[in-house]
Each structure stands twice: as C-alpha cells, then as structure tokens.
Amino acid sequence: MRIVIALGFLLVSTFPLFAAEAEPKLPYTWRIVVQSPVHPSLTAPVRERLCKDLKAALLPILGEELGRIEVVDLRATPEKNWEPLWKAFVEGGWPALEKEDARKLTGIKTHFVKLEVNPGRTFRVEARQLDGSTGIVSPVVRSTETQNTDTIARLAGLIIGKDFGPIGVVEAIKDNDKQVSVKFRGGQLPGFERTVETGDILAFGLVMELPRPGGNKSKIDLPAQLVGKPQSTTYLRITSKISNGECRCDLLSGSANSPLVAAKNIVGYRAMKVATQETMVRLRLLDPEGKSPPSTTSLEVWATDLAFTGKSTNRDTLDLQKGLYSSGRPLKNVAFVVVRVGATKSARFVVPLVPGTEPITVRIVIDQTDIEKAEYEQLCERLRGRVADAGAAQMELFKALGALIGSTQYDAAMVRAAGGAKAMESADLILSDELAKLKKHKLVKEAHAASLLAVSEQQLQILRSGKPELEKKIEDLRLAIAKSNDPVKFEKEFRANELVRQIQYHVGRGEVPEAEPLYDQLIELTKQEEMKAKKAKLLADWAPTNDDHRKARAFLLDEWRKATTLAEYQPLLQKLAPTAEVFVKNADKLGLRNLLSAIEISYAKLLEQLATLDENADRDLAKELKAFGEKLRKIEQAVAAESKKLEEKK
C-alpha cells in the first residue's frame, strides 16, 4: 500500500449536489473472471469443474437472495465477447485495474483470478477485486499455492471471499461534520447482516459524471457515464448497529475538513467495505523519489487506532528500528498516523490495516527547510531549559544563604556565596553566548523559535538581576566576619539587612507566604512600626477579592507547587491558564508573579526528572516530558505578557 502525503493540506468545500440511489433491495452481481495459461493440467474439463467448484465455494457468502455469482473462464470465452475491462486486464495485469478507464461504473463487482503454473507443477492463484459501483480496487493482490488442481477452487474461494465488500451510498448528516450515514446496497435483503458489523472499515470514493459525447449540443440523448474516484486519504468506520441496511460511520481523514466535496460533475459518494485486521504496525517513510527522509531527532511518528491525537505518548510512539517505524502494540483495523517534524509541522493520514500490506510504505514530502527549522527549535528549547535550570539554582542559592546567615554561620555563607557568584557568572556568559548565536540564525524570526528565545532572554535578565543582590551579600559577609567592635549590635543590623533583602526577593517573585514569616522576624528584631505597616499593606494587597480568586490562589499554592513529577503535573495543567485568567481579572500583580515563579520551579523539577532518565529505556517518558514542557512554556509566555501589562500600570 502506498500513500502520498504532503506536509500541509488543501481545504475543500462540503455538501454534495445530490446523492446516488441507495438501492437497499438490489442484489449484487459478483463476477469472477478466471485467466489461466495453456497447460496440460488445465484442460477444458478441469477448468469447467474449477469454475463450478469456485461458484459453489462462494455461494455461502451471498446466500440465495443477496446476489448472484457468475464465473467466466476467459479461455473458454471467445475474445470478441470479452468486455473492455477483461481485455485490459489480460494485456496490462493488475495495474490495469487502477487506471482511469477501469473506474467506469457498471454496477458489477468483478473479481479477477489469475492462475499460473510454477516449475514443479505448483499452481499459484492470485486474486483481486474491482468494484463496479465505486471504482474501488481491493487494497492487495491476495495469493495462495497448491500442487493439486482439485484444491484450486477451494483455496481461491478462501482468498476471494475475504474481499467481498458490500457497497453503500454515503450521505451527509445535518449539523454533524464528524459522521455520515451509509445506506447499503442489498441492505434489506436476507443474509446481508452476515457481511458487515460495527467497527468495519469502508473505503470512500466520489461518484462523478463524465462529459457526454458531443457535449451539451448533441441531439442524441445518451445516458450519463458515471465513474468512481476513490479517495485514498479518507475512510469510514462503522460506529452504529446496522438497521434496515443503514448505519452511521465516523469520517476518518487526515484533513480537518469534510471530504464531501461539492462540484458540478460530482453526483454523490459511495463506500465499500475493505477487509482489515488487528496487527502490529510497521511504517517505512520514503520521499517521492523513493529515498528515506534525512535522519533527524526532530522527526516523530506515532499511531493509534481510535482517533488522531495532538501529541505522542509512550503507548503510541512508533520506534525507528532498521529503517522501519514500528508500533509497540497491535492496532485494530485502522491506524491514525501522525508524522511530525519539529513542534509546528505535521501530517496526518489514515491507513486501513489490511492483511498482506506489512510493512506499509508511506511517501511523504519533507522539505529540508522544515528539518532545519525543527532542529533550530530544538536548540532553542534546550536553551530555555538550561536557563530555567540556572534560575532554579540561583533561587536555591539565595535560600541557602538566608538560612546560613540567619543562624550566624557567616564563614560558611561566604564560601557558599563566593562559589555561587562564580557559577552565576559562568552560567550567564555561556547562556548569553548561546542566546546570541541562536539570535543570529536565519530562522530567528520564525514564531515558535522567537517565542522560545524571548522567554529565555527574559529569564536571563531575571538571572542577572540577582547579581547585585549577591554582591551586596558578599560585601556584608566580609564586614560581618571582620567586625570586632560591638558584635551584638552589628549582628542585629546585619540580620535585619539580610531579612529585608530576602523579603524584597520573595515579594518580587510574588511569594508572599514566604515573605510573611520573614517580616515577623524583622519586626521582632527591629521593633519598628514601619515594618508592621509594610507587612499589613503587603497582606492587604495579597488578600483574595472573591471566591474564585481564593480558589485560584489555593490551587497555585497548594496543588501546583506541591507537584514534583510529570504524572502529578499532567492533570493540573488544564487548571493553570484559567488560574492566570482569574489573577488578570482581579489585577493581581502578586498572583501573576507567584505563578511565573511557580512555573520556573516546575521547569527545574521536570528537568531534574528528565536528567535521571535512561536514554534508551525511558525514551517515551522523555518525549512526554518535552511535550508537557512545551505546553507549559506557552502558558508562561502568555502570563509574562499579562504580568508586564499590569506592572506598567500606575
């Protein structure tokens, strides 16, 4: 099976001009055309018996009323009586069934059976169906072998019977662009219920009217010639019970738009059941020239059998092994496949899982520019993660220094502060240099990469803003260590200055619960009424204004900040953006600062978890972590923009 998909899809309009007749009481005509070579073992009596046995083998599928079976022996039929399709098959083989001339609709379901005699008198049987009501060809050529002419008919019947596909008329459902109605031919005849069931996959096609000979000016009123146009990117899946020959089906398509295209020469839509199975999926990606796409870590492939998903999971990701993308579990009847290059470019397509098509070859168009863009985005994402890691390290440094100074361990604090200053300086130089290089890239103006770099630059500025703070701490520590006169008074002043700096740091990050006990220590130490007034004002600014505001604060301070792993963060993510909206609505500057601080801490926790993963064994979890980080980054960017607006207001 070969499917051609480009990264990008054309939009199409919907709603047909009119639909073809459903024909619920019309039986099927199933014609089996047998082509065989001249061979001593395939005499006229042998072929005659073969045709009779073949008809008998297939009769249970249709029963007495669902249709009639005709078996044609081409060697016993004068060539002048051959239909054009038969002649085309004899001359062109299986490819002839896929040509445009073969898709002219006759209403007859034709199954071609080709016999060959291999060396050693082994008989090879091949079979494939062309449906004359839809123009749809069975996905694969089925085959079997035998050494006995007496078993040819039975074995041929087995492989032919699998592909008998009931056909139906497809109609749109009002106000429902996800499903369609299918009314089957023969759907109200006895025996039809054996042929289809819920979960079956139907191939989909347009029914088109060819221009009449002589054009509209022709005086001869000739009947319209209809032709089927299969749509290889669209399938249907039966989702309801078949009632009175009718059912509902989900539309399965890589495009978000309806495949029910409107045009003056389209007279309706039809579908045919295709035989599918539950199986492991293996995909081979090739470009239009038959070459494998360039190797890049930015290329992801995943598949499910339920519906398209926006991101890969450890359950659905296809692993690349020896040139094939393989699933870790079997999928049932159909695969919804997504090929993504980077964070913003992807293609979606539907693959029916028919027997005999492994591996599935998917031809895709991946522009080299898309690969370059994806790899550049990865570099920007890595920088964003490293900046977050540096910010988290700085935060831990200030907390540790505060604890050491609070317990008068000045020597230990000095050592920690000096080491932290060097680390901060080194991180700033390395990250700033990397940012500068990335900003010189030719793709720097691409929206996704630009947003990543903007957040990284903003966080680097925050990182640098801590440098003067740290330098002041180091200077104070030098004085404290060298101070000899009135050590009690100095220690009191020193601790007061340190508490003031810690309070300013936490308030700047919106961490009021952390600043409140520090204010209590400062008030106890200094006995200053001014400090009581500042604390009261801070708590007044922090106080929720309504119940929604109170709930938003509780979520952020309790649920979100207590989470540590991806599994704990995932169910909380959907509440994060609404929480920010509540803060914006209530002009809560401190709440937005706290939210940005919490996101920064979350990045650090997730990066720590990512660093502990095994590159091979935990590949799926690593992908999930990165995908979650991307969602978090988008929320962070939006919150930062709203916070900036509020801070700029007087």
Set out the fold topology.
Elements: E1 2-6, E2 28-35, H1 44-62, E3 67-73, H2 84-92, E4 109-118, E5 122-131, E6 142-146, H3 152-161, E7 167-173, E8 176-184, E9 201-209, E10 226-238, E11 246-253, E12 266-274, E13 278-279, E14 282-286, E15 299-304, E16 319-321, E17 324-326, E18 331-332, E19 334-341, E20 345-352, E21 360-365, H4 368-406, H5 410-439, H6 447-482, H7 487-508, H8 512-526, H9 529-542, H10 547-562, H11 566-569, H12 573-585, H13 589-611, H14 619-648
Parallel strand pairs: 1-21, 2-3, 2-4, 14-21
Antiparallel strand pairs: 4-5, 5-6, 7-8, 7-12, 8-11, 9-10, 9-12, 10-11, 13-18, 14-17, 15-19, 16-17, 19-20
Task: Explain the overall architecture.
The two termini are 65 Å apart. The chain is of the alpha+beta class and 650 residues long. The strands form five sheets. Strands 7-8-11-10-9-12 form a six-stranded antiparallel beta barrel. Strands 1-21-14-17-16 form a five-stranded mixed β-sheet, with no helix packed on it. It has a five-stranded mixed β-sheet with strand order 3-2-4-5-6, with helices on both faces. The chain contains 14 helices and 21 strands. It has helices spanning 44-62, 84-92, 152-161, 368-406, 410-439, 447-482, 487-508, 512-526, 529-542, 547-562, 566-569, 573-585, 589-611, 619-648; strands spanning 2-6, 28-35, 67-73, 109-118, 122-131, 142-146, 167-173, 176-184, 201-209, 226-238, 246-253, 266-274, 278-279, 282-286, 299-304, 319-321, 324-326, 331-332, 334-341, 345-352, 360-365.
